[in-house]
Amino acid sequence: MTNTVAENDTKFFGHPRGLATLFFTEMWERFSYYGMRALLILFMVAPVASGGLGFDKTKAGAIYGLYTGSVYLMCLPGGWIADRILGPRQAVLFGGILIACGHVSLFLPSVNTFYLGLLLIVMGTGLLKPNVSALVGSLYSKEDIRKDSGFSLFYMGINTGATFAPIFCGYVGQRVNWHWGFGLAALGMFAGLVQFYLGAKYFPELKPAPASVTENAAVLKKWGSLAAILLLVVGGLHFAGVIELTAVGISNTFGILLFLSVVVSFGGLLLFGDWNKEERMRLWVVLILFLAACIFWSLFEQAGSTLNLFAEEHTLNEIFGIGFPASWMQFVQPASLIIFSPVFAALWFKLGDKGPSTPMKFVAGLVCVGLSFFLMAAGARTLGPGIKASAMYLIGCYVLHAIGEVCLSPVGLSAMTRLAPRNLVGLMMGLWFMASSVGNFISGRVAGLYEGMPIPELFTIVGMVGMVAALFLLFMTKPIIRLMGGVR
Ligand code: GLN
Hints:
Radius of gyration: 22 Å
Strand order of the largest sheet: 1-4
Number of strands: 4
Shape: globular
Helix content: over 70%
Strand content: under 5%
Number of domains: 3
Largest sheet: 2 strands, parallel
Bound molecules: glutamine
Number of helices: 16
CATH architecture of the largest domain: Up-down Bundle
């Protein structure tokens, strides 16, 4: 990619002007994503008589997991398409158009347009999400110490969208009409598109690095064989009566696909890529950070699954004596993040070279989500017949999630752009979001255990997983820093 870095551009809070465009584009995209997500499962389980789809919870949950997992998995081909064919600017534009069409499709009242809408959003987000982040990275040189704080600011945009989305789309969708709620999400994405189109001149036009015919053929062969194997396995299991091609069966199949994608992507990159020693070492770091991120998101994304159930069924949803609907809890995490983002951005900026290393920030993120589940286990222990847990447990839990996310997620995005071998920033972003896909999928599976075991135990085990992962990473910090070879 050709890169014109705006070293001296400090027009947006000390950052390049292009960051403002990317900040608002992503803010609107996330507004549409989280606005629709706040309604999705409620809409699916709502009775047909009240405008919903009337699905049972198992089917709705399976579709929900499949959808949220797919959204992030599609970032992988989305990153590749930007690197090799479209360039990130075009990819973001096309992605945004597809997402807006998806929400419009959900606005139409039919089951077919519902599925079509989900499909369009999955494809569109795959194109947009990794590449808008890659564009943020492109505003800074590898040495520019503003990069981490730039990503933190960008992350504030994400969460501004995520904060207002459940309030507005949730209210319109639940109180006025489901489809109007989806329509509002579509309007948000349109606003983001206009903003991106008008502001595109503020960041460098990155040219894709077209692959050779042989390389394209190799990629096609790889994905083609994978698809063929998958079809054979799924078909075989289906005819042998092991799996059923219901929503749940398809969700299981997705789990297999996801696992294979992780193995094939990292296996292919590490074993067959033509890298020099330094690039290969950095790819190992990407793998370790990826695994840590999978665990982090598996805990974090339970906001939409187990923790949401806990809010609905076991929490006294009132504060200072004022009651509120359980779904409004979803706003605590992004809102807290907005408060913490500038604090951490300033802190990283001020500490500069003396700040904690990338792996140490990951350790901190894992500790926060781990602790949050210990707090929830304590809350669950206060339950009794007719006694609900105080809302403060969930609020405290989401505040810890927000601090954890600030430590890990923007830093992870930034690290991917710095650890990426030549021209593969988009692909690295795709791999990064694959960790979110794994996390979303696992968090759905954990929700399946919610009814079957005592809640304090479940939350304690989940918390332990986070803490053990943090401990592992802590011991590996020094070797990771060595492998990073000068990239902090
Ligand atoms: N909340 C962040 C976002 O929406 C990260 C989500 C994720 O990667 N799982 O971008």
